[in-house]
Write a structure and sequence with these properties.
Strand order of the largest sheet: 1-2
Shape: elongated
Radius of gyration: 15 Å
Largest sheet: 2 strands, antiparallel
Number of strands: 2
Order of helices and strands: HHHHEE
Structural class: mainly alpha
CATH class: Mainly Alpha
Strand content: 5-15%
Distance between the termini: 30 Å
CATH architecture: Orthogonal Bundle
Number of helices: 4
Number of domains: 1
CATH topology: Arc Repressor Mutant, subunit A
Length: 83
Amino acid sequence: MFESVEAMWSVLTPNRWALIRAMASKGPMSLRAVARLLGRDVKAVHADMHALLVNGVIDRTAAGFEFPYDRIHVEFDVQGKAA
């Protein structure tokens, strides 16, 4: 999904992780419902949801925004330079 660890961290910020956790297992939700749940400004939540949407982390349907996965598994390798 992400080309590099840096790209992943640029999308999956702490606020966006909180958003994902808040949406997990709740089904489709409106933007305002997510903002209320998080106690955050609608405009800021909209920007975070847009970033997650364009990166395939959440979906948007006629019923609202949804985190469609059971879980997120992150795995990456750290490799030193060859001598």
